[in-house]
């Protein structure tokens, strides 16, 4: 109680300075009516709205268990344009989606009502992507994890107004990986992602195809976009009412936009491509029987060797590819993917006979952290700090007219990322750099875990932790670096680097 009193005193001062919007108060009233017993009066409701996201990162609202009622939706593969002038066309648009059987929810989507399709690029090809904005507000198209020139990256400097379109071009030089795309307009990223703007981008190459890994899309190679959401009493994604400045965390789980999903699989090895596409929630994925699975890839590509795990944690925007072997699973076993708190995310339904033959080779890739990279001095220091609207990087908020760092194209530098604790102890910040894939050199001076020794573009930083990463940019331009709790990003926890 003493700690609560201290927190209350500090945050009441914050409230007196910053105020609390009518939308925020409406959000608290809704939470009180829906969940009951959370707030005693309106003043306490105001305080809790300002602090809930921060405190809930230590005591997060539990997700409702999936009932397994609905077969998991698989994102469609986007067809290539036929005219040869453009490889793909991607359109941001408004829609209505039957997330619930008895209601239509207003949503955003790419080339559809909710979420988006999968774009498949091949290493070595020249690609043109035409982006179109059919929303009633500005948006951007950010290619998260893609090594691309700054002008094509889709950061906040490149907004598309309603009705506008733009074509970007790139030469694909990255190895096989699962990346994703989402909007990145200044101050509006969190809301647009929350409403449904997110899609996947696969890079494929000949080397990975020779490995014999599960690769039949939608059968034994399954993309999984994990998102948590709050819905209002009308089953709408009322972001203005429900958002939290410290990271909007919901109680309902959607996977690929599917509520109460199940995944039907055959008796074979199944590759699950995991994306934490939430605004703020961290996930720790496990099998409900305590069994193991095999991790084969990180954000930016395959690991050198497969790693056997019984759990894996992903902060917002992080990805991982795992293989679960269903060959000897009995249909009556009721196997499911669960979160750390035991909430059921994805029940598996084993059907039919044996499936495709596939393999997990002992050697997958050759990603090397060189001795030179290990011994490079730190040349960039990044300090992450704060909560709610008071978040900063190196004591500053984002300024589109300020360049925070410069770096030469093609040169590797070591960045040190420090998550400075606050008086409440701090919280995990997922840190992302645009336009590059980096390698982890160390965590608090120690070598990274085996399953982090691959290409990364986002990284989880605990309070008080220092992480060194080796960063090289293949292209020139201005790129963002920021916390990927989307509300933190919108509140200015973002900086810029110019690559020359």
What would you say this structure looks like, in words?
It is a single chain. The chain has about 500 residues and is mostly beta strands. The protein folds into 4 domains: about 1-55, no CATH class; about 70-210, Cupredoxins -  blue copper proteins (Immunoglobulin-like); about 220-225 and about 250-355, Immunoglobulin-like; about 370-500, Immunoglobulin-like (Sandwich). It contains 8 helices and 31 strands. The protein has helices at about 1-20, 20-35, 40-55, 190-195, 205-210, 240, 370-375, 485-490, and strands at about 70, 90-100, 105-110, 120, 125-135, 140-145, 165-170, 175-180, 200-205, 220-230, 250-255, 260, 260-265, 270-275, 285, 295-300, 300-310, 310-315, 320-325, 335-340, 345-355, 380-385, 390-395, 405, 415-420, 430-435, 440-445, 460, 465-470, 475-485, 495-500. The strands form 6 sheets. The chain has a 7-stranded mixed sheet with strand order 12-11-10-14-19-16-17, with no helix packed on it. A 6-stranded mixed sheet has the order 1-13-21-20-15-18, with no helix packed on it. Helix 1 (about 1-20) packs across helix 3 and helix 2 (about 20-35) packs across helix 3. The longest helix is centred in the first third of the chain and has 17 residues, at about 1-20.
């Amino acid at each position: 109680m003493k700690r609560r009193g201290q927190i209350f005193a500090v945050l009441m001062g914050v409230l007196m300075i910053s105020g609390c919007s009518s939308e925020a108060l409406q959000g608290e009233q809704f939470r009180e009516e829906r969940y009951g017993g959370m707030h005693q009066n309106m003043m306490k409701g105001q305080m809790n709205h300002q602090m809930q996201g921060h405190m809930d990162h230590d005591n997060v609202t539990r997700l409702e268990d999936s009932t397994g009622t609905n077969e998991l939706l698989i994102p469609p593969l986007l067809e290539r344009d036929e005219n040869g002038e453009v490889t793909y066309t991607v359109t941001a648009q408004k829609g209505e989606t039957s997330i619930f059987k008895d209601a239509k929810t207003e949503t955003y989507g790419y080339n559809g009502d909710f979420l988006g399709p999968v774009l498949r690029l091949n290493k070595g090809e020249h690609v043109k992507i035409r982006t179109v904005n059919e929303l009633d507000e500005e948006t951007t198209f950010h290619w998260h994890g893609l090594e691309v020139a700054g002008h094509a990256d889709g950061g906040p400097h490149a907004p598309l107004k309603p009705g506008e379109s733009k074509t970007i071009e790139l030469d694909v030089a990255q190895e096989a990986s699962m990346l994703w795309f989402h909007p990145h307009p200044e101050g509006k990223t969190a809301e647009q992602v929350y409403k449904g703007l997110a899609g996947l981008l696969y890079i494929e190459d000949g080397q990975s195809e020779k490995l014999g890994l599960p690769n039949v899309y939608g059968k034994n190679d399954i993309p999984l976009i994990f998102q948590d959401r709050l819905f209002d009493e009308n089953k709408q994604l009322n972001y203005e009412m429900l958002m939290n400045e410290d990271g909007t965390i919901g109680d309902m789980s959607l996977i690929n936009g599917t509520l109460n999903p199940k995944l039907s699989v055959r008796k074979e090895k199944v590759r699950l491509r995991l994306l934490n596409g939430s605004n703020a929630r961290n996930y720790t994925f496990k099998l409900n029987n305590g069994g193991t699975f095999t991790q084969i890839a990180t954000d930016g590509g395959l690991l050198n060797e497969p790693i056997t795990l019984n759990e894996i944690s992903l902060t917002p925007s992080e990805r991982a590819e795992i293989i679960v072997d269903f060959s000897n699973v009995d249909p009556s076993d009721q196997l499911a993917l669960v979160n750390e708190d035991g909430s059921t995310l994805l029940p598996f339904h084993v059907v039919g006979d044996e499936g495709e033959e596939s393999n997990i080779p002992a050697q997958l890739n050759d990603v090397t952290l060189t001795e030179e990279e290990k011994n490079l001095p730190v040349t960039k220091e990044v300090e992450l700090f704060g909560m709610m609207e008071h978040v900063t990087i190196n004591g500053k908020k984002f300024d589109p007219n300020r360049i925070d760092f410069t770096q030469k194209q093609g040169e590797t530098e070591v960045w040190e990322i420090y998550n400075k604790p606050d008086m409440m102890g701090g919280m995990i910040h997922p840190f992302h750099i645009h336009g590059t894939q980096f390698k982890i050199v160390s965590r608090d001076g120690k070598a990274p875990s085996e399953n982090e020794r691959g290409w990364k573009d986002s990284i989880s930083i605990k309070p008080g932790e220092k992480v060194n990463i080796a960063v090289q940019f293949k292209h020139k331009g201005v790129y963002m670096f920021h916390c990927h709790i989307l509300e933190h990003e919108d509140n200015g926890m973002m900086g810029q680097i110019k690559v020359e």
